[in-house]
């Protein structure tokens, strides 16, 4: 999908300086690894924790890079150069522009939290696959379902790179998918790997102390998670698609994330294990479990929904082979997301949850 360089850099929030022909046609993807550069692509040189990517610019040009984006002042390059304040942040925007903003052509659900991200993402995906007759994709830290094809996403611990995310989303669009569930880690959010992703629903599972070796403080870790809700408020508005933040009301930090939604005029739904309704009037809807039954074979309970205009009603009956009280929470979050879409009904939710026998690498049974 050839694009002029000037069209790619138009996606950037800020450009410090440019040199060379900005009408240069880009015929290959944006990459931040010089070894992956294809002829006609863009190499983004950024400072890493241990290595400065600017040292690989000559190799990227030798491999056929048609343009370079970086942070240093550089003169007399053989190809056009774009200087930015933060190359890491720029990569996602450039990759999204190259692939023609694929997330704008999908209904996109983002899921973050300390625990339960992969399980909740997979549950939502399973429900939507039933409701859309297979036209729902998934990008998790385990794998990506692109519609008829599943690929490994790499490290199994964090969000894929920005170029990889945009390429996967573009493949979903090409395969005719309509929905995508995207697991968003704190590292991916903090490093801007999710820039250029336009989301419609933001889901928080919970928040506990983790990854402080990277983030430094709990407040910085929480702010990284909060970035997903900020993205929700700023994301491209898609026709006939409302934007909603869905928050675990039991979490001590729920008010922090709800406040971000309020500041951005985003509707807020809550869910939790408590059957009593939250005293706050922040939540437009609240989802909870009625008399959950736990057994070695799994879970059974009714998902109850409170809506101010309609009171309390049963939304679905859950039979799941997943185990544990924490999975009740994950299922409540997925059920709340499902209730957002008119095309999803009781039967879709119940079938989507019941067909999911286990989450790869998450509390799998061993006989």
> Per DSSP, what share of the residues sits in E-state strands of 2 or more residues?
15-25%
Low-confidence stretches: none
By DSSP, the count of extended strands is 18
CATH hierarchy, class of the largest domain? Alpha Beta
Report Rg: 22 Å
Q: Major beta sheet, specifics? A: 11 strands, mixed
- Summing up helix and strand content along with how strands pair, one would put the structural category as alpha/beta
The average pLDDT score comes to: 92
Percent of residues in helical segments? Answer: 25-40%
Number of domains: 2
Widest beta sheet: strand line-up: 11-10-9-12-8-13-14-15-16-17-18
Strand-and-helix sequence, N→C? EHEEEEHEEHEHEEEHEHEHHEHEEEEHH
CATH fold name of the largest domain: UDP-N-acetylmuramoyl-L-alanine:D-glutamate ligase
Shape: elongated
- Note the gap between the termini: 50 Å
CATH superfamily of the largest domain: Mur-like, catalytic domain
Number of helices: 11
Which CATH architecture of the largest domain?
Answer: 3-Layer(aba) Sandwich
